[in-house]
Design a protein that fits this description.
Length: 174
């Protein structure tokens, strides 16, 4: 990366989500985003309403390991309003992935609401490679739980952590 001239701001974007767990679709969006932005802050949502499979710390650790060789990626947790998080971290862009038309309505509403709450915050939509357009964290968890192969869908660390969760769950039942 070229050094920033004096007074020049880095192009910093936030990529918020549950990442429960991160999939190759997320990784694809982050990799593409790094071609456009100088720095991507992955904001892992702490949502007490949803019952996640992985704790926030586990989700952050997996993401940290996957991008351990990429100093332009940072991982943080957040709760509350995204616009506040963005303001506190001096970011003006939010990255969101669009898989299919079904994502559009919710994303459209959220982008407009965030823009209303902070007109300086822009939402930047990106499409993943076509092979990840059907992929969601929930789908991965479900396929893995039922014994399907998820090798091409998640990074190896995620697959081994899902295996471990499953072994523990089976042990606690027996
Ligand atoms: P989900 O919506 O599957 O629960 P997240 O909350 O972790 O996942 O999603 C964070 C962001 O990543 C959202 O903008 C979502 O649309 C996007 N995303 C999730 N999976 C993919 C994928 N396979 N390809 C592109 N974008 C994705």
């Amino acid at each position: 990366m070229t050094a920033l001239a004096c007074g020049e701001r880095d192009r910093r974007a936030i990529y918020p989500g549950s990442f429960d767990p991160i999939t190759n679709g997320h990784v694809d969006i982050i990799t593409r985003g790094l071609k456009i932005f100088d720095r991507i802050l992955i904001a892992v949502l702490e949502n007490p309403v949803k019952e996640p499979l992985f704790t926030v710390a586990e989700r952050m650790a997996m993401i940290g390991e996957i991008f351990s060789g990429e100093p332009r990626v940072e991982v943080m947790s957040f709760q509350g309003l995204l616009v506040d998080f963005a303001r506190n971290h001096d970011a003006r862009v939010v990255i969101r992935g669009l898989r299919a038309v079904s994502d559009f309505e919710y994303e459209f509403q959220m982008a407009l609401m965030n823009h209303k709450l902070n007109p300086d915050l822009e939402t930047f939509f990106m499409m993943p490679s076509v092979r990840y357009t059907f992929l969601s964290s929930n789908m991965v968890k479900e396929v893995h739980r039922l014994g399907g192969c998820i090798r091409d869908l998640v990074p190896p660390i995620v697959e081994s952590n899902l295996d471990e969760k499953k072994r523990r769950a089976e042990r606690s039942i027996s």
